[in-house]
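Quick one: structure for this chain?
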Amino acid sequence: MTNSPQAYFPDGRPCPDILTEDEAVKYLRLDTIDIKNPGETLRRYRAGGSLRAVQISKAILYPLSELRRFIETLAENNPR
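Got it. Here's what it folds into:
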């Protein structure tokens, strides 16, 4: 694992190294834009292969490093 700077949620709380679906939605700020179901959007990214997650027991969790990679990929491929 690399030593990345500490990440924080919009409310100022530090992010853990692995996030629940609700935490990943907040980290990506999908809950702040006009999306009817941000959790479904997150699952669609995962099903499409652009966002990877891990399953631990019955929980689907999102490594912070993967969320950062996802954002970097979007930024590199976004012409705006």
